[in-house]
Amino acid sequence: MIERRAFDSLGGADHGWLDAKHHFSFAGYHDPAREHWGALRVWNDDTIAPATGFPPHSHANMEIITYVREGAITHRDNLGNQGRTEAGDVQVMSAGTGITHSEYNLEPGVTRIFQIWIFPDHQGGAPSWGSKPFPKHDRSGEFVTLASGMAGDEQALPIRANARVLGATLKAGETVEYRLDARRHAYLVPASGQITVNGVALQARDGAAIKDVELIRIAASEDAELVLVDAAD
Question: CA 146 to CA 191: how far, in whole Å?
């Protein structure tokens, strides 16, 4: 099963400083058919104006992955962590028993991110934060694991969930494949470009909810940047 979720069908709100689109129910947007996809709870497509951002706020018991598509995001938290994550790179926050943080766009232009939340396998635990560069040329024509709690993914940023977040870039005419185990859920979004997923056409920023498919085959009809989540049931 592959369900296309067109970008213009997504929920969301334009707050002026933040233009947010929600692939799943979030904040003031609620769709009972789009509560979560397996352990994947949130996928927000956020555009943040310069010199603005999310003031200090708290989270608990959630794995929060930020994929920066354009610009950069600057993080600070009450544990003393701080860092700037720029386009193509990824940051991960394991909220655990609780963490308070802020995220600001301190760049001269807009910042665009995917904010992805995954339910942890277990609640509690000490909160943590980390960031890592993932050069796009290193994932040209193939998926690279960006964040994971699965065995064998030690080069990725760690998360506390039986899930992985992957990225790939494709040139027009290229294809890439990903094998999905039974009873798992995948969600794919092209950050840019036009693609087909097992023959289903997606435009940039559309979502594809995928399950009961053994082999995901993605073909690019133009240069594309892909983000894929593989999550437990």
Answer: 15
Q: Are the C-beta atoms of 52 and 110 separated by less than 8 Å?
A: no
Q: Is the dihedral of CA 93, 96, 101, 103 positive or negative?
A: positive
Q: Give the CA distances from residue 215 to residues 64, 100, 128, 180, 197, in Å, rounded to whole numbers and listed in that order.
A: 27, 40, 34, 6, 10
Per-residue pLDDT, 76: 98
How far apart CA 79 and CA 67 sit, in angstroms, is: 22
Instruction: Tell me how far apart the alpha carbons of residues 206 and 23 are, in angstroms, rounded to a whole number.
Output: 9
Q: Give the strands of the sheet with 224-231, arranged side by side.
A: 2-5, 207-211, 185-192, 224-231, 163-170, 144-148, 157-158
Rounded to whole angstroms, the Cα distance separating 139 from 162 reads 22
**83: exposed, middle or buried (C-beta count within 10 Å: 0-12, 13-18, 19+)?**
middle
Based on the number of CB atoms within 10 Å of its own CB, is 144 exposed (0-12), middle (13-18) or buried (19 or more)? middle
Alpha helix positions (H), the chain: none
pLDDT(180) > 90: yes
Identify the structural domains of the chain with CATH numbers, from first to last.
Answer: 2-231 (2.60.120.10)
136 band by pLDDT with thresholds 50, 70 and 90 = confident
pLDDT score at 197: 98
Q: Could you tell me where the DSSP H helices lie in 69-182?
A: none
The answer to whether the beta carbons of residues 25 and 41 sit under 8 Å apart is: no
